[in-house]
Design brief:
heterodimer; A: 392 residues; alpha/beta; ten-stranded mixed beta sheet; seven-stranded mixed beta barrel; 11 helices; 19 strands; globular; B: 1053 residues; seven-stranded antiparallel beta sheet; seven-stranded mixed beta sheet; 37 helices
Chain lengths: 392, 1053
Amino acid sequence: MRSWVSLDIYYCSQYYSSVQQCRHGSGIIVNNPLGTYDMEIMKAVLGLEDGEYVVGDGFGVEGECAGELVFNTQMTGYMESLTDPSYFGQLLMFTFPVIGNYGVDEQNFQNKNVCALGCIAKEICDKPAKKPSIRTFFEEHGLLGIEHVDTRALTIRSRIHGTMRAALVVGSDDGKYAVSLARKTPSICDINPIPEVSCKTPYRVPGTGSRIAVLDLGLKQNIIVSLSRRRGDLWVFPHDTTHDQIMACKPAALFITNGPGDPKQAVHAIRCIRELAGQLPIFGICMGNQVSALALDGNTYKMKFGHRGANQPVRNSDGQIFITTQNHGFAVDGETLPEGCRVSYTNVNDGTVEGFENRDLRITAVQFHPEAHGGPRDTECHFFDSLFRRLA
Amino acid sequence: MPKRTDIKKVLLIGSGPIQIGQAAEFDFSGTQACKALREEGLKVVLVNSNPATIMTDPETADAIYIEPLRADIIAKIIEKEKPDGILSGMGGQTGLNLTAELAEMGALKGVEILGTPLQAIYQGEDREKFRDLMKEIGEPVPHSIIINTLSQVEDAIREIGLPAVVRPAYTLGGAGGGIAHSREELLRIVELGLSRSRIHQVLIEESVMGWKEIEFEVMRDAADTCIIICGMENVDPMGIHTGESVVVAPILTLRDDEFQMMRSAAIHIIRALNVQGGCNIQFAFRDGDYRVIEVNPRVSRSSALASKATGYPIARVAAKIAIGLHLDEIKNTVTGCTAASFEPSIDYVVVKVPRWPFDKFKGADRTLTTSMKSTGEVMAIGRTLEEAFMKAKRSIDTDVRSHTSQSEIRMILSRPTDERFHCLFDAFRQDFSIDDIAQLTSITPFFLEKIKNIVDMEKHLALHCDTKDIDAAKRFGFTNAEIAELSGKDILEIERCAGLPAYKMVDTCAAEFPATTPYFYSTREPGCEIIRSNRQKVLILGSGAIRIGQGIEFDYCTVHAVKALREEGVEVHIVNNNPETVSTDFDTSDRLFFEPMLLEDVANILKKDDYYGVMVQFGGQNAVNLAVPIENEIRRLGLSTKVLGTTPDAMDIAEDRDRFSVLLEKLQIPSPRNSSAYSEDEAKEKAERIGYPVLVRPSYVLGGRAMEIVHDTAELETYMKEAVRVSHHHPVLIDSYLQNAVELDVDAVCDGTDVLIGGIMEHIEQAGIHSGDSACVIPTQSLSESIVNTVREYTKKLALGLGVVGLVNIQLAVKDNVVYVLEANPRASRTVPFVSKATGLPIAKIAAKVMIGKKLRDLGYQERELEHVAVKEVLLPFNKLSGVDTVLGPEMKSTGEVMGIDYDFGLAFYKACISAENELPLKGNIFISVNIEQKSEVIPIARKLRDLGLTLYGTEGTVDYLLDAGIEAHLVRKVQEGSPNVLDMMRHGEIRLIINTPQDKQSRQDHYQIMHAAVDFQIPYITTIQAARAAALAIDAIKREKITLEPISHYLK
């Protein structure tokens, strides 16, 4: 079942170093037999665009970064989230207060690297069951984190205000500076992070079954695992691949992955889908759902604070409910979907579109993550099995 | 699908008396379910034998039967009430077993089983069916074999090996189970297990000892939507019953892929069981591998914990699902804006610690195994695990001795007892390494690290204690008092430095949605979510963990006080830490603080808002003990808050023997000669003066802790060594012991001007047996009208003389037509719910109203004259605790109570005996063995029993005596006279009732063995002459008349 270890070589990994400019600094941790509270601790500060800032203790290395502050409510799977490319360019805050209990489980990474800009936690576990700890891992990989902040208060603030831009400065407690950084950083709607997380060159994950062209907008590793497990012969393409290049591999279907940022920035993918719609079955997850809607002249919008967690209920058209993993800040506007499209899933909490299909054009897309990792696997078989059934 | 229209009336079976393995959680679940069903316009018929429950309150259900939970009786109720459905999964295992029995006897024709289907009841409880189902769906279970006879043990050893786990089918809290390390041990446990199992079946199983124990609470609706409410992880690994384990929520040490693997399995299993409602599934986990250990297709103690840990009302939702609603059609009442079809996400850590009764049972085997011994539990919430551990530790309120000897610690760690959790701290204090402790305990090092962090902090604070250290210590949940003690600094300085805690909300969704539930916990963070209100507010102290002497009765009183004040438009806040209770249901009060109840924790709450008053009367002795400290603290802080009701000073008069004696003298009320002493010498001198036998006990006691009847100086010396440790601040009380007096209990409400008598209860056992263990009856049966009037007069005089405002419980004794007052407790007593149910007078509510200034005269209640008779009987935990002396005495031993109600004393007593699992036989053999001094008293009883057609057996002395009196009786050998003896007869099921009163020293061993066997073989027994007399009356009555089966409202018309 661990077929994905062999997939490791297919990772593209160059993007990371270009994004974070971290100073490897003087965060000295004194080995103190009396425990963590007496360490020589790095200061750190998180500044928000609304002018508020919170000071905490830093972990990882000194440095600064700015982006959207988002919160995730899942209680396990912190490494899956940190390595989820959809968090690229965002500061990821965990609402669960004790993070890092089982260490860094590299076998469950969704990307070779941590994709979130920085990590905000109430408390990082220093002595997890398995080594390395998040702290060590962050130090070794030059990552930024802040702990001992009131994440619940920050979550409530984000919920009321809507998602805010924020800046994390590790190695300083200058709140005003952090706020100014936050205010300077561009809105997520004005940047296109997809090229940073999409593969640079095409690669193949061979399989004996149907050939599937995977358009990589920043894929989670478990999408590949889920497709491979069902013997899919996967040809993975960079985000800006043209429809001709894709058709050249003679795929039985096109699969659009998840990815970071505003779907409207994914112009290449939108164009590609528009060209291929009707020619072959198209499947999408998350960003894949949104760009498919945009390709059909539907619209997407930025949500107040999005859905990020592993407890999101969605209802299918039969009225059955599934608990899903989600990670999105944008949603498809169901009203704008053209004729022939049918909303296939809605969110039980807020009624937003969680998937749609167009039978004529053979497009099936979901906003949630049936591949899980982290989160519940309730829709995995449902989604991926039916995908392959349709190709058979 | 909307709710079903064909179901209009539902029968709900409660779980009966509180006992080990089945506590207040089923009152919480049942009450929630009743509310949920009635909201949907359904009628609810409720049967429960336990009067101390909110579910049996007139406003909870449409027809309430306080009747024995026996299938034939419930069948008659079904015949009468004709419900459309029966909700099977709300009354614990008792409820499920009864549902199965009713179905088997054909009593459910036209009555649909809702929620848990019959098939799932069998699959959940019958080990073989469970294993077959798991195999069928491909879920792994431990390798095991099922046996029905003792001779199959050899096969089991061959196939499974040792150690092996024994689990009897159809028992509560795993009673009769255990882990066997040797052949002898296995034989012993299997024999016991077979006798306890309803179907004489036990399972012997591959030991997964030391694996992680993981639990899931799962919900499923008719549309097959499945959700996980909460995953919980036991700190104590497999091998210790989950009810006996320290548990954390959510699961903390599993990777997401491991967690999801078991989550998927849990959903797989609930689908296979076809449960519509809630289900508890337990797994053992090690190195990526798991076994399904157990399923409970019903609400449970764990589901109550999960409800409180997440805020998700499992029982409420399960009840709605049972009548056809789908999860997405049920509102999440916590957020008010989302549906129940989601999985709670929490942003705090929860710790549960069990409470054991070993402080009451000195001789009991304290080892923790796969069967339950604990009576209750506390829950604590924190933003760090250290904080939650620390809060749980101070909520649990046990007198723990700390261990310093390495070998002692090693022993406790490797052979778990109730002391182990506390001993983990001791081990770190003695510099044990994590590896060492992990080896000894199999506890996951992650948890040990956290405990080590706490101990390291203790050590650190002794050396450094600046602002930063205080901040770190507060983050770990230390109190100011603890920091002051460890650092040697002034507490005021610590307090100034530490500031106030923040209170955060439990909202099911980790703040993703705005929530409206007023359910809070404290933590050390900046963001406080309490919004001060302008209304008049009262804080009520709850009673904490269920323990012997402080049971569900006090939760009942707390809830009633809340309801009463809310009726009066007062905003009511509760502080409590017991997750099983109705009082900690999020919609019981206007605001719930899930907190420890030490002075500092309570004072912090008082500082956060302007409270008009605090009520300590309803939470039992622990809350009452806080009266004076809270009053002092209020004064120190300059708050305007008042301790409502009886003043702390008046409470002190009641507790202080000398002051109380002076008062009684002034009021000209007789009392037994009594005194108090602070030292052994003083005690000896005072005891001499009063005259032996004397009753001795420490002051400020809970359920008669360490109370004893002492016959001579030697016994007194031994006692003093014990008692002084129990309480050093308060003296030892010495009373003259009134032998063979009739004891009475009175519950009354006083407003300072008038006194309302709730009920006068006559004890069935003689004075000297703790009133909590004594069966009692309303109205009195053996007393003349003039004596009862004297009792009324004394009660009134004393309540007014003490200055009681609120409830008072007075204990009296009548000997030779003289009424003595033994003691007065100006607070809610254990008998308040019984009195309320028996008389229909809601005295706890009345008291709460009086405490905020209402007058009895205006409320318009009067003492009731009853045409019916209500008997309270108690349930004793001896079958759950091996090695315990079964003789009743001044130390309270019972865990719960039942009520029998009818128009005749005999019938009411008979019903009470059935409910207390002590069913009186109508034919067959009775074994009688009584104390020499009581032989004359036993003659008429024996004669009556013989006349009723029962056959009498006895040992030599008793038989001779009976034969002399012309009553035929058969001789049976004493135990030490060799086989066949009385034990053999018992083993073969030839004895239906045992009457065995405490014996002289020579035959005590005999008595002990007989009582032990009676408990093991579940043979009804009686240990007092008075109860034997009542039993004879009851058997007589039941042979003459039919029992009445009417709802409680019928009696109270």
